[in-house]
Amino acid sequence: MTTSAPSPRATPESAATVDATEEVTLTHRPGRWIDGWNPENAGFWAREGRGIARRNLGWSIFAEFLGFIVWQLWSIVVVMLPNAGFTLSTSESFWLISLPSLVGATLRFPYTFAVATFGGRNWTIVSAALLLIPTTLLGFVVQNPETPFWVLLTVAALGGVGGGNFASSMANITYFFPQKEKGWALGLNAAGGNIGTSVAQFLVPIAVSITAGMTFSISLAGWMWIPLILLAMWGAYRYMDNLSSAKADFAGSAAALREPHLWVLALLYIGTFGSFIGFASVFPKLIADQFPEFSTLQVGTAAVSLAFLGALVGSVARPYGGKLADRFGGARMTVAAFAVMAAGALALPLTLPLGNFWVFLVCFLVLFTATGVGNGSTYRMIPNVFHARALASPDAGDFTASKRKAAAALGLISAIGAYGGFLIPQVLNASQAATGGYSAAFYGFVGAYLVLLLVTLLVYVVPRRSLAGERI
């Protein structure tokens, strides 16, 4: 049941408070604001709530998907710049690759609270519109090989706005779905965004190669996404909604930041998601450095880069990591993921002397698959850890507070974990500068994954009183 009211915008006080048994009456107001949203009410959810939520989820996934594309555009553009006449050092290339991740990770903190401040629909329009800036500028700066490096770096940094979209998109979708369906909805939202990295690395080389005779060919790496961004803005404007019940929980965030386990989980997420986004961004360059003849493969008039396979398998594996965590426990699956990541990272320097690209590719695909599984399992651990902490606290059973902290922790941990996208390329950069190769970096990654494996094992697999002996 719906009604209309004339007020231009909801205030937190105007949001209807209803429980799971009362009949829900939605109030629709100008600007597509909705009052009275209660997805926990089974009757309302079956009658109209699910349809509204899924409509918002679909457009949210599309906008976030484009955000990931823009966030990772420079990972593939950097590899193409030498053919366009640019002369970049290895260090400069790694900075162009890693700086968007640094900016995107930092923006995830304010983006987490933007939905509650401006409305989910409104912020989706704004955050999508911001993507027009780096894509448009990229098309101009890559036309002239004399463009100063600082200009390239500035435009690359602006691409970081796409990284912030994940946090606001996940926060927005959380408000639409009931507790029993949040995992499914957030998993779809996350996977839909992650796969944008793969799509960018697949389509950009094709678009540039088939227009190779045109002077603005490489500019298409940025400009080709503008129509889709405009479509996302229109879709959000036309079909998405703002929920007046979406409120920023600053107290919950402050409480979560005081929880030691938030920092432990954030460290694990740097190891899993940070490795995924970090390796996804450098994979095209690593292929170009180690096996230049395989950097692009000709298929007719189009050039295809196999680098997209890494981000693809990592994205597809993520929801399975969550499912396996539900069955076997998040901590156990995270331990298994770090073990496979360590094995994959170790195999790379050991097999590089063979000079076999296909062995190199398989090692990386194993590594990417493990990072995807680890993303899902680590993220699944977060609500379980806060639930267990509530059971072990003096006020055992205060699950409302634990849910608030867990919800806040999901956004904070996703932001902290994204810094791995900056660290991975910079560690590889340091290794190249110091030793002339990447082997030292991969041995370092092996050591880091083994340490994180032990942390997960000792803190979350072994029963602990601080977690009420719960299986995490």
Q: What class, by secondary structure content? A: mainly alpha
Number of alpha- plus pi-helical segments: 18
Helices and strands, in N-to-C order? Answer: EEEHHHHHHHHHHEHHEEHHHHHH
**Global outline:** globular
Which architecture of the largest domain would the CATH scheme give at its second level? Up-down Bundle
Overall domain count: 2
- CATH-defined superfamily of the largest domain: MFS general substrate transporter like domains
End-to-end distance: 41 Å
The helicity comes to: over 70%
Biggest β-sheet: count, sense, barrel? 4 strands, mixed
Mean pLDDT across the residues is 87
Low-confidence spans: 1-18
Give the beta-strand count: 6
Summarize the structure.
The protein is mostly helical and 472 residues long.
Question: Could you describe the 3D structure shown?
Answer:
With 472 residues, the protein is mostly helical. It has two domains: 29-248, MFS general substrate transporter like domains (Growth Hormone, Chain: A); 250-472, MFS general substrate transporter like domains (Growth Hormone, Chain: A, Up-down Bundle), CATH 1.20.1250.20. It has helices spanning 42-71, 73-80, 90-118, 120-130, 132-141, 149-158, 161-176, 179-210, 220-223, 226-239, 250-257, 260-290, 308-328, 330-351, 357-392, 399-417, 420-435, 439-461, and strands at residues 2-4, 26-29, 33-35, 242-243, 297-299, 302-304. Strand 5 (297-299) and strand 6 form a beta hairpin. The longest helix is centred in the C-terminal third of the chain and has 36 residues, at 357-392. The protein is globular and about 65 Å long. Residues 1-18 have low confidence and may be disordered.
